[in-house]
Design goal:
Chain A has 19 helices and 31 strands. With 733 residues, chain A is of the alpha+beta class. Chain A has three domains: 198 residues, Aldehyde oxidase/xanthine dehydrogenase, molybdopterin binding domain (Aldehyde Oxidoreductase, domain 4, 2-Layer Sandwich); 148 residues, 2-Layer Sandwich (Aldehyde Oxidoreductase, domain 4), CATH 3.30.365.10; 326 residues, Aldehyde oxidase/xanthine dehydrogenase, molybdopterin binding domain (Aldehyde Oxidoreductase, domain 4, 2-Layer Sandwich), CATH 3.30.365.10. In chain A, the strands form nine sheets. In chain A, strands 14-15-12-22-19-20-21 form a seven-stranded mixed beta sheet. In chain A, strands 17-25-24-23-18 form a five-stranded mixed beta sheet, with helices on both faces. Chain A has a four-stranded mixed beta sheet with strand order 5-6-7-8. In chain A, a hairpin with a 4-residue loop joins strand 2 and strand 3. The longest helix of chain A is centred in the first third of the chain and has 28 residues. By secondary structure, chain B is an alpha+beta fold. Chain B folds into two domains: 74 residues, Ubiquitin-like (UB roll) (Roll); 77 residues, [2Fe-2S]-binding domain (DNA polymerase, domain 1), CATH 1.10.150. In chain B, helix 3 crosses helix 4. The radius of gyration of chain B is 15 Å and the shape is globular. Chain B starts with a strand and ends with a helix. In chain B, 61% of the residues are buried. Classes of the chains: A alpha+beta (733), B alpha+beta (153). At the A-B interface, helix 6 and helix 17 of A face helix 1, helix 3, helix 4, helix 5 and helix 6 of B.
């Protein structure tokens, strides 16, 4: 393990990052929170003798010239391994083909995400959060290599440059490869404030580079958590009580143990697992157990009860997250336009079902898992086992989809509790049914909006979001430290891009009974952008204005979004005639520090079935690291959001989730996928986030397309085909 | 005992005859490239070829395979269609998380073998059984067409 010491790019004498001591800063109108942060570092001299130059936590150069880049954020399909490697290699002037990657071990001091103060990958912030820290670390390393070469040549370092893994002294034409400088560079002091490249000097950043993780993903070689096979591993699957919070009643282990391949039945208070030679034995064994459950007090909870409580809570005044002007007075002037919007619970359903491989011994525990929270996984396992954290080894793996599901450690904790009763390593694999029925769900939200218009513009806007606060559970200091306003829950609502003189956003925290909630791709903006952008179309109609023109008239202070809207409208053919029952809908948003306008074109048939024809997005996401990844993330993110709009809903009856697999928790498939055109707008601004940006843009643009096609204003997701077919009235809350 | 011919090699496995081929591949033979997604033939992550036909291995009893040849993602690159699909997949950077892509590639390679120049409706018919949660469908369609182009050029 590397030894923490002085940060390479910070003031001498400062200490390694400590989330507990960092000041929690609320960043103005952006609705994000930031922890003060400096680049953590390690010294080569602090570790055992090693023929490598390892000036910080992210870079290791061996005498062979091999450059290993340590990835602080996990790869779950978003291309971050490649983007972070490009950022490091560019400032390091490393030879791209000499680079290999390594997942960071659990270590909050070295690898915490600067925004969260937790070693977590999420909120579309991996490039944003590490944009300066990684580049500074690499630039400092390059400075040490250059200084070492200059010292050897007895020349002025300023006369030396670096390129493609070599230091070059141009006046004499001398060159030294980085591998030859490993020992000398390790003796150089890290520069305090290394200069970073200007955009014109970038060699990798901004170029469409091939992803480093994908070649092994087309031939079966890539290993995900579920593919771990430590020697002697047994396979287990589990059933927790289908009613949230319920306990195991009675099981019949004999029936399971008669099944060939079954080795062991593990009965815990809240779950049962069967361990076998293979998954098939475990699954059959589980079915044979004839488990009865003590369902407990949640057995009467259902979706109607949860909805009623949410609606009732929404009548309460909330905590004010932002207030401008005098909303009460402006609303009283009328005429007042009002609407309520509701979103359902959603499961994450990553293609790789939840799983974790564990070996527990008396004095140590080894865990193989794909997780978005590596250090939290280590501490969670330490807590379950009673071991000190340093006795818990976490081997982080590629993630077969994260989407927020793997920001939680519940599945790992269950696997460890099972493994504590098993001799040797055991891989615990969820069935898809268990995966969908024991998720931490995207909360159901209930939003109330009241607004007035004046001269074709919005004069007053009163928005109240009611729902679960995930942040209050997941990162309590960020909730308490922000006066009980969950910054995620109001994200993209407090910082609406439109100029509105009288403006108020409130939030009411109402936790649903029984159902656990968690972050889901698109997080708070999913809810807020849907409600806001849907209502914008209704207000445009009330104002007698075209939806694009109505929005554009209020975007004067957000020129990056105004431009994106112009590009999207033009590329989408906004205003051109369409066939009957076909419409275009627009969505404008600032989310994850990206400015994106999206137009969906969709058709509604007489049965109310929706056909996606085309999606056009224009995005200004600031400086782009890997442009092809930006396009891919938007394409995929749009599909993810449109899937939820078309199908996504988890419902609760008798305290349990009613959906169980892809037959009743449906996914959009290739035959329904629209043509998608993405237009990147060149920008010199700092990078924005992109992993979730398309997800939040898709649903409101689709809903507005359906509004244009049918005149029916849907205010609830998922889309109700009976309403679109005219068989029942639209939901009005 | 079940005898299977997988990727050109003969295997004898000690497994119940109703055990799905998926678990024989993954848990008994260590061929983990074939993925588990749903267990009910709804997602296509477990797609393999049996005598060249795409099959959902999560619902195919290993005992019913008999002497038919099984090909998995680990060996599909040795077939002309598989190699072309893999090449196009990388050229167009189809993959995101990659978990479903073994199945996508197996379905796409089988499509090219039966329909060398697939149109959009052929692609829809052949690929609609494969879910991609990352939403790579736009690129899958494009890459299949690209791969078909290699064949003709």
């Amino acid at each position: 393990m590397p030894t923490p010491c002085e940060p390479v790019a910070s003031r001498p004498g400062t200490e390694p990052a400590d989330p507990g001591r960092r000041a929690l800063l609320k960043a103005g109108g952006a609705g994000v929170f930031l922890f003060a942060f400096h680049v953590p570092g390690v010294t080569a001299s602090g570790s055992a003798p090693h023929p490598a130059f390892a000036p910080n936590a992210f870079i290791r150069i061996e005498r062979s010239g091999k450059v290993t880049l340590i990835m602080p954020q996990v790869e779950m399909g978003q291309g971050i391994y490649t983007a972070h490697a490009m950022m490091l290699a560019d400032e390091l002037d490393a030879a791209w083909d000499s680079v290999s990657l390594e997942a960071a071990p659990p270590d909050t001091a070295l690898y915490a995400n600067p925004v969260f103060g937790v070693q977590a990958t999420g909120n579309s912030n991996s490039v944003r959060a590490f944009w300066l820290p990684l580049r500074r670390a690499a630039a400092a390393s390059r400075g040490m290599l250059v200084a070492a070469a200059a010292r050897r040549w007895r020349v002025d370092p300023a006369a030396c440059t670096a390129d493609n893994g070599e230091v070059i002294h141009s006046p004499s034409g001398r060159r030294l490869p980085y591998g030859a400088l490993v020992d000398a560079a390790s003796r150089e002091p890290p520069p305090g404030n290394p200069p970073l490249k200007s955009p014109a000097e970038f060699k990798l950043i901004g170029r469409p580079m091939k992803r480093l993780d994908t070649p092994d993903k087309v031939n079966g070689k890539a290993k995900f958590g579920i593919d771990m096979m430590p020697a002697g591993v047994k396979i287990a699957t589990l059933a927790a009580c289908p009613v949230f919070g319920g306990k195991v009643g009675h099981v019949n282990p004999d029936a399971a143990q008669r099944i060939p391949g079954v080795r062991q039945v593990v009965v815990l208070d809240d779950l049962v697992a069967v361990v076998g030679d293979h998954f098939w034995a475990a699954k059959q064994g589980l079915a044979a157990l004839a488990i009865t459950w003590e369902e407990g007090p949640n057995a009467t909870v259902d979706s109607a009860l949860i909805g009623d409580r949410l609606r009732a809570a929404s009548e309460r005044p909330g905590v004010v997250a932002r207030n401008l002007g005098d909303v009460g007075k402006a609303l009283a002037a009328g005429p007042r336009h009002e609407a309520r919007f509701e979103l359902p619970f959603l499961a994450h359903a990553p293609m790789e079902p939840m799983n974790c491989t564990v070996q527990v011994t008396p004095d140590a525990c080894e865990v193989w898992v794909g997780t978005q929270v590596c250090a939290r996984t280590q501490s969670a396992v330490a807590k379950v086992t009673g071991l000190p954290p340093e006795k818990v080894t976490v081997h982080n793996q590629l993630l077969g989809g994260g989407f927020g599901r793997r920001l939680e450690t519940d599945a790992t904790e269950k696997a460890v509790r099972i493994a504590q009763h098993v001799a040797g390593p055991v891989k615990v694999v969820y069935t898809r049914e268990e995966d969908i029925q024991h998720d931490l769900y995207r909360p159901t939200y209930y939003n109330r909006i009241a607004a007035t218009l004046k001269d074709g513009r919005i004069d007053a806007w009163h928005y109240r979001v009611t729902g679960s606060s995930i942040m209050a559970r997941w990162l309590p200091p960020a909730y308490v430290g922000n006066h009980d306003v969950d910054v995620d829950e109001v994200d993209s609502a407090v910082d609406m891009p439109y100029e509105i003189p009288n403006f108020r956003v409130e939030v009411v925290r109402e936790e649903p009974p029984a159902v656990p909630t968690g972050f889901w791709r698109g997080v708070g903006p999913n809810n807020n952008v849907f409600a806001i952008e849907s209502f914008m179309d209704e207000l445009a109609a009330a104002a007698g204005k075209d939806p694009v023109a109505f929005r554009r008239g209020m975007l004067g202070k957000t020129p990056r979004l105004e431009h994106a809207l112009d590009v999207a409208a033009e590329k989408a053919g906004w205003g051109r005639p369409l066939p009957q029952r076909t419409g275009r809908g627009v969505c404008c948003q600032v989310a994850f520090a990206s400015f994106i306008a999206t137009v969906v074109e969709a058709e509604v048939d007489t049965n109310g079935e929706v056909h996606l024809r085309r999606v056009t997005s224009a995005v200004d996401t600031g400086t782009v690291v890997n442009p092809d990844t930006i396009v891919a993330q938007l394409q995929g993110g749009l599909i993810f959001g449109l899937t939820a709009a078309l199908y996504g809903e988890i419902t609760i009856e008798k305290g349990r989730v009613q959906q169980s697999n892809f037959n009743d928790y449906r996914m959009l498939r290739i035959d329904q996928a629209p043509k998608i055109d993405i237009h990147l707008i060149a920008s010199g601004e700092p990078p924005g986030g992109i992993g979730e940006t398309g997800t939040t843009a898709g649903p409101p643009a689709l809903r507005n397309a359906l509004y244009a096609a049918t005149g029916i204003a849907l205010r609830r997701l998922p889309i109700d085909r009976e309403v679109l077919a005219g068989k029942k009235p639209a939901w009005r809350g | 005992m079940i005898k299977l011919r997988i990727n050109g090699l003969d295997h004898t496995v000690d497994a119940p005859s109703d055990m799905p081929l998926l678990w024989v591949l993954r848990d008994l033979l260590g061929l983990t490239g074939t993925k588990f997604g749903c267990g009910i033939a709804q997602c296509g992550a477990c797609t393999v070829h049996v005598d060249g036909q795409p099959v959902r291995s999560c619902m195919l009893a290993a005992g019913s395979v008999g002497n038919r040849a099984v090909t998995t993602i680990e060996a599909v690159g040795a077939t002309p269609q598989g190699a072309r699909i893999q090449k196009a997949w990388l050229e167009l950077e189809v993959v995101q998380c990659g978990y479903c892509q073994s199945g996508q590639i197996m379905s796409a390679a089988a499509l090219l073998a039966s329909t060398p120049s697939p149109d959009d409706s052929d692609i829809d018919a052949a690929m609609a059984g494969n879910i991609c949660r990352c939403g790579t469908y736009v690129r899958i369609r494009e890459a299949i067409k690209r791969a078909a182009g290699y064949e003709q050029s």
